[in-house]
Amino acid sequence: MEMKGKDGDKNHLSPFDQNGTQGKDGRISPSWRPSSAKSSRVGDEEEDTGPRFRLYDKRSWEDQVQKEKDAQRKLDKNNGKAVAHLVDGELKFEDDEEEAKKTRDPTLQEGNILPDELSEVFTVDYYGKPLEEIDKYIKDKTFVAIAPRFSNKYIHRFTATKALGCLTPWNPVRKLAVYIATNQFFDYLVILTILCNCVFLAMPDDPASETAEYVFLGIYTMECIVKLTARGLIINKFTYLRDPWNWLDFIVIISAYVTIVIDFTSAPSTGEEDGSVFNPQMLRTFRVLRALKTVSIVPGLKTIVGALLRAFKLLFEVIILTTFCLMIFALFGLQVYVGILRQKCVANVPEYNATPSKSYLAFYDEWMKNDANWYQDGEGEYLICGNASAAGSCPSGYTCMPDIGENPNFGYTSFDHFGWAMLTSFQLITLDFWEDTYNKVIRAMGPWNVLFFVIVVFFGSFYLINLMLAVVAMSYEEEAVNTNREKEEKERKEAAKDKAKKEAAADKAQADKEAATKETTKWKPPKEDGKQSNGTNNNKDSKDSKVSSSGIHLGDNDGDISTKTKSSKPPPKIIKGEESTGRNEPGTLVDRNHACMGKCCYCFIPWLRLQNLVFIFVSDPFFDLFITLCIGVNTIFMGLEYHNMPDQLVTATTVANIVFTVIFTLEAVLKLTAFGKFYFSNGWNNFDLVIVAASWIDFALADLDGVSVIRTFRLLRVFKLAQSWKTMRVLLSIIMSTLGALGNLTVILVIIIYIFAVIGLQLFRKSYTEDKFGGDGVPRWNFNSFFHALMLIFRILCGEWIEELWNCMRAADELCMVVFLPTLVFGYFIVLNLFLALLLNAFGSESLKGSDDNEEDDKLALAFGRIKQFCCCCCNRFKKTPRTASVGPDDLDEEKQIGMTDLDNDTKDKKALANGTLKANGINHDKGEVDKAFDAKRDKFSDFDAARKASKAKDSTASNAGSTSKAGETKDKKDGKDKDGMTLGDEANDMDDDDENKETVVEDCLPGFCMKNHALWSDFDESNFGKKWYKLRYTMCKIVEHKAFEYSILVCIALSSMSLAFEDVYLYTRPELEAALYYSNIVFAVLFTIEMLMKWVALGFKKYFTSFWTILDFFIVVISLASLIADAAGGEDISAFRSLRTLRAFRPLRAISRWQSMRIVVNALMLAIPAILNVLVVCMVFWLIFSIMGVQFLSGRFYKCKDASGEVLLPSVVANKTQCLAMAATHNYTWVNSNINFDNVLSGYLALFQVATYEGWMEVMDDAVDSTEVDQQPSFENNLYMYLYFVAFIIFGSFFTLNLIIGVIIDNFNALKKKYDGSALDMFLTQGQKNYMNTLKKLGSKKPQKTIKRPKARGCLAACQAVFYDVAVSTKFDLCIVIVIFMNMIAMAVDHYKMTEYVSNILDILNILFTTIFTLESVIKIIGLRHHYFRQPWNVFDFVVVVVSLVSIILEDLLASIFNPTLLRVFRVFRIGRVLRLIKAAKGIRKLLFALIISLPALINIGALLCLIMYIYAIIGMSLFGNMKIELPLDDTVNFQTFASSFVLLLRLSTSAGWNDILETMFLQPPDCDPDYATRPEGGGKFKYSTGDCGSPAFGVFYMVSYILIIFLVVINMYIAIILENFNQAHEAEEVGITEDDFDEFYVVWEKYDPLATQFIKYEHLSHFVGDLDPPLGIPRPNEIALVAFDLPIVEGDKIHCLDVLIALCKNVLGRVEETEEFKELKSQMEEKFQETFPTRVNTSKTSSTMQKKKEDVAAKTLQNAWRTFKTQKQLRNLTKMAMQKAEADENEKNSKTRGASLANLGKRLNSALSNFFSSSRPSSATSRHSIKSQTTVTTPGNSQRKSKSTLQVPAVGPIYPAKGSDKELEL
User: Fold this and answer.
1) Which of 252, 241, 146 is nearest to 194 (CA)?
2) Spatial CA neighbour of 593 closest among 583, 585, 604, 602
3) Comparing C-alpha atoms, which of 793, 790, 930 is closest to residue 852?
4) Angstrom distance (rounded) from CA 373 to CA 363
């Protein structure tokens, strides 16, 4: 854009011109302009070196005022329109609209660091002083002050208007205030005050804190006054209260003064609520918010909070959606579960004869209310029961009665009214202790209610809560991208500067060199010669650059050394360590010592020789291998310790510790000797040194008590493994890099924890008293002290809040929610999700991709290479039979093999990489890019890509290829693919097509090496038998590969799997079924055996036993046959054979290979497995450290003395083990250990696993905190700070490591996404599902349907219809309906338990009323819109809801007498459907749900896999634990006795809810159970069983842990990954393109401008129309330049078609991002669609375009100006000519007097005409038409200075000749 005229420049440049020219007051103004603001204006190129900053004074203020006036004047002059010119036929505009719209330069915002360009010219004298505004875009009257803080210069901006109405910026008082307010020491003082204040706030009962409060208040008040004086109050921008952070301060200060006033005026209170009107305690809690002030002062925190707040806009939609869903769930619960949790078992009422004093009814009532008659379970809770079918029943002698006593959990768990229903639903969504509600509702209502919980958990918890993660992660990612961009920009500038400096230095060096070469006669040291001949010459440059970058400077004392060490034989060549290439000539010594060594050490050369020898030794690969082995063995020894170790083992571990400490010390000494000064430049060396030092300190202090903490330092040796283990190194680097980024976030988290802890402390510290909790005593987790409050808030942040909320509400009523719920939302949902987002971001960042120095890996590879050469013959044997790379779990076996026979450079290594396996030592060869830890898994995909391409090639060549080439291709493909098409590259539909049209290939029967060397095989194919055999195999192949065969086998698998579900503990009661199952088992075993044999014949052994899925089939068949044989031999009671039968549960796995969509999901999992295993192993190493620490601190300390009822005794009763055992006989005491303990490393792992899953962690922590010494009775909170061990573990062990697994899975996703052309989801979809998904995606860009035409009013009926139509389409009508829906929702929420008859009747009437309104609405719409009503899905939904509501009202009346009222509740649920109609109105919610709908097909596949795994585990659980004794928490509904109960239990365990309780029951051992006999249910007597009714701890632990790991960590995380991926996709589509809603909105606005739907609008309306649209389509006014640039076609009548406008606006939106194929496709699709929809557009002819129109307009104005100018000049020429003629004539006249007068008159007129002409005639400016006659203004000297209104003023010619009227006036 081109700028013309003075105004254009002046508009932007005040207070100083851009060109650095001297102003009229003689001041030099700066030429700097922010880079973002640079435009191609003329004359801007010249730079100037004048001073850039000027103090702000009165003159500056006047300049700003003048600038504002000028801008306004210019606006008035152009009427707000852009002024344009034609230059060479192109339009040029004077002002850039985009520039004019800018209000600020982003680099110069308030609080930013001063940019480098400005920072360089800024002088320190100006710190804290008011300076003129440096941001040229800011239109307001402002000034800036620059002040240093944390060694950076920060910008502070102030308003230049008078502060507080009286202080100008140059007022000394305000200048002082500005100086103080921006001073860094003032900030430091405030921060210090805040920190001190925080300390005092945490000690509320300390008498000093009240006094200190006044001091702090004084400081804050002073700060507030200073800032108010500097900034002003609130009226202008940049004043005190315009900053939200200052509002915080202001409110805190005001509330403090209010509290003081109240304290003084009211009577002195005792601190309790003693009936006084107001409790100032509430106001005091406001003080806590002062901690937030640190955010506004520390710069980094503001950006994080900025990110949080930006995330909040999107989060707000998610929170609304979550709240909405919560309300739906709560309403459902309210309708269906109201009052059911009060059902209890009551003892049967005894016979009673009525007496006059007490009637039978009174007795009955009293009996029911007496809680002694209610049945209690083992834990003292009243048992909930139900009368529905399959609900929990009561024991004999009891009856299930409704409405008995309170709700469970102190009355807080219920659906009895809307509030409690919301709280319970929220508890379910956050999955905290939800198993409790789940079990109770299923007991009361029966197992079908599982459906409600599945929806709540899978939709509410997994989808909505993870949507929060998706939003936060996305916001953080955007934030990180912006930050990185700024960083890169900065680095680029730095690099450019460095380059310039280097070039200058190089030039200087060159000059010096040239000067030096002239002095050739100068002395040359012999040393230099040696150095040059050393062969390092060629490397010199590269080495130099390396040295300079690492900051090591070369010493210059080589000459001195050589002279000192001269001897009779020639001195060895000595080169500096920095210059050593690693391949030095013999006789060369490398000096790695400090420079002073050579000067002071006389035996320097021998020392160097020794050092070089040691260096060779240390650098040897075997040395590294030895150290790595030592670390491994040392770790094993550390993990061997356990409770009650034998003395020999204690001695062995002690000796081992000494040996390893000596080895590691030697290693450190040797390395220190070898590397010299370079030793400390490696972080790992420093780490080693610290550990060695700590080990020796540990030895020194071994006898002292309480120094065991130092022993934990030895554990850090495990981390030394990272030196040679790639994955561990990468993960550690991720954690370290994340910790850096987490710095600020951690501060925010600490502030949040602190604030909520102090609020809790202030509000509730006096509430937790004994009397509130009855016999339970004050709970452990309370607000009684600051440490307890911190721990409680930390527990809430872990997502465990509901039980503590109940306790708090027992102590202090519902006020507790004020602390608990905000903590949960802010801490748990937002800040912790931000942590996770950071981790995910770290995975994507260069920390993973960065080329890690691979020296260690290479050394170990070399060491293994040497070992291999040593055992050469073994390796050759391995080389001969390389395995083909198959993909699947058998890779894991291969991984083990690679671990054992480690390196085979040629084949094994490449194969390992291709298969995604990573060896334990992470050795990689040859491939530079492959040595990235997680790349291994990606490299695996190259095979798949190849397979996919191969399959495509195969399709294309299918028609003309012979069977031989087929066979060849198949063989080629086999490397990347197996029989079942396990590869990802093959999409499901490819496989189907292949099956239909591929020729059958008969594979070799045996592997190649068997057939190679035997003559038998060479003739076999040609023999007669051979041909028949081939034919048989060919036929078998045809059969086996046929779809019907596969489907029939699939049916058999399904039936045999289902038969397993019937083998429960009740089978003995159904002998016919038992017999049927027995025979069916035989039939299936035979069928599967036949199938196996057929496949052997058809495929051959080679192919059969190289596919994972067929091997799986083989094992399952073998197991089936073995169990049949065992049954026949009568060995079913032998546990080994029983476990064989259990393995039949794996039969459903065979379905996977035959079930497409399932196989696709399993593929994806298989791909992630190597990476997940890798991370898991690293996590195990992390956990190992914590586990060993746990063993050191807590082994043997979880034992306790219990009485007969199982209560732990107080230490005052029993002090230790000896006393307990002594009283065992008399008092029945027992000395027992907790099942979960730290007695050895494996038990420690289990305990930590419970802590990491937050299940059972309370019990573990309680034991740890109460622990005393070994064999001593535990004492309450004796070891309080043990909590910190668990906090550390949760942060590092659980939070980091478990989230790393999520990171790995999502990282896998992104890798796959890059490999596939489509999105990462394609791998989860079959072709049909992909089509479904793509169709849905296209819906997002569909054109809105044409509006339904209004019925034409011809006759009465049509007129009525037209009225109905108007109502139906009116937005007001819709709004009314939405309001009615809200009111209906409120009415439904009023519903509660035990309503009065009156309320119940009112609600029934309201329900009928609402139903009537909705019925009327649908009737009106159906009449008005006719059949079009049913075209919209929402209308169909409304219609269904109305019909169901009417049916339910009718049925409720009709069936009330016949049916159970609980059935009627189900009908009432349908009312909730009305509430769902709100979704139609909310755009944001619709978008979030759209993302879910897109994910559905993939989620269904994952759900299917989840169900399959649960099915298998349910059957295994039934067979292993079905006969286990039923003890709490197992009961008649929660158990493994039947398939249904097992499945319901496992569904709950899939969220890991309460798995620790189930595990506890599996630890059941004698004497608590019978080890030989199990009991049949329902009194069936006892029968012999291998484990009796005891549990099996080993099986139990394996079963539970494997289930939790597979389901919770892997499958659920895939669920999360899909949701994240889809949300990002939905969001990206919105970010980039145009959604359906935007099209809708376009047409809504269009209707206003085109009410008759002609599809055209007037050209002059275009600017307003586009201005009225919302973004992204809208362009706010002024938008003339943009519209001209669109070049829209204009048709007859100066009209524009809607399609052209829409396409142009779409292009405008899409053009902002890079043009990809999708965008082009979208445009062409839209073009085609619109061509069909708008025939009118095709029929009209284009007459012009907006660009043409503007050009014509500008050209016309230019021509007018030129013509006017020409006419005026011609007129003036005529005028002059006439004047001269007149003058000649007059000269001839005699009368000189008259002549003089007329000449004077003429002179005046000429003067006036010419001055007028030259002052106003600008040829280039556009002039409006004015009559010349009308311009008779007399020109004054002042007027000539003023700008005319661009009108050409020409004098009228007539009056010159007043006498001669016949002369006509000249015309224009």
Assistant:
1) 252
2) 604
3) 930
4) 13
SS3 assignment, position 152: strand
Residue with tokens 């899909």: 1618
573 forms bridges with which residues in the sheet? 588
Q: What is the DSSP string of 1411-1460?
A: HHHHHHHHHHHHHHHGGGGGGSHHHHHHHHHHHHHHHHHHHHHHHTTTS-
What's the pLDDT tens digit per position in 655-667?
999 999 999 999 9
pLDDT reading at 1610 higher than 50: yes
Distance between CA atoms of residues 90 and 1122, nearest Å? 90
What lies within 8 Å, CB to CB, of 851 at 6+ separation is 928
- Which is more confident, 1447 or 1867? 1447
999: tokens are: 């020729």
- Residue 153 carries which side chain, given as an amino acid letter? K
Q: What spatial distance separates the first Cα and last Cα of the chain, rounded to whole Å?
A: 36
How far, in Å, CA of 131 to CA of 140, rounded?
A: 15
Rounded mean pLDDT of 1254-1278? 93
- Of the candidates 429, 331, 449, the one whose C-alpha atom is nearest the C-alpha of residue 386 is 449
- Judge whether residue 1337 has pLDDT over 60: no
Q: What stretches of 1195-1296 show up as alpha helix (H) in DSSP? A: 1217-1222, 1224-1227, 1241-1252, 1257-1266, 1282-1288
How far, in whole angstroms, is CA 788 from its chain's centroid? 31
With CA atoms as reference, report the closest residue to 20 among 29, 11, 12. Answer: 29
Q: CA angle 803-809-815, nearest 5°?
A: 125
- Higher-confidence residue of 179 and 318: namely 179
CB 1511 within 8 A of CB 1057: yes
- Token pair listed for 1439: 């219609």
For the chain, what percent of residues have pLDDT higher than 90? 26
Handedness of CA 1403, 1408, 1414, 1416 (dihedral sign): negative
Residue 1103 DSSP SS3? helix
Residues 402, 403, 408, 412, Cα dihedral to 10°: 140
Task: For 1498-1529, write each residue's pLDDT tens digit.
Answer: 788 888 888 889 999 999 999 889 999 888 88
Whether 1808 and 1802 have beta carbons less than 8 Å apart is answered as no
Residue owning tokens 């009961």: 1531
Among 1150, 1174, 1156, 1111, which Cα is nearest to 984's?
A: 1156
> Phi and psi (nearest 5°) for 132?
-65, 150
Burial 1084-1117 (b: 16+ CB within 10 A, else e): bbebbeebbeebbbbbbebbbebbbbbbbbbebb
What is the pLDDT confidence band of residue 1815, given thresholds at 50, 70 and 90?
Answer: low
What residues contact residue 157 under an 8 Å CB cut-off, 6+ apart? 110, 142, 143, 144, 238
Can you tell me the mean pLDDT for 475-479?
75
Cα distance between residue 1231 and residue 1229, in whole Å: 7
Give the residue, 1292 or 408, on which the prediction is more confident.
Answer: 408
* Contact (Cβ atoms closer than 8 angstroms) between residue 918 and residue 1010: no
Tokens of 1240: 């050895």
Q: Is the dihedral of CA 21, 24, 26, 29 positive or negative?
A: negative
Question: What's the CA gap between 1386 and 1400, in Å, rounded?
Answer: 14
Burial class (CB in 10 A: 0-12, 13-18, 19+), 1746: buried
Share of the chain above pLDDT 70, in %: 74
Q: Residue 34 has what pLDDT?
A: 41
- The CA-atom distances, in angstroms, between 559 and each of 14, 522, 566, 607, 1825 are 64, 16, 11, 18, 92
Cα(376)–Cα(378) distance, integer angstroms: 7
Distance between CA atoms of residues 1454 and 1841, nearest Å: 95
Q: For residues 133 and 142, is the Cβ–Cβ distance under 8 A? A: yes
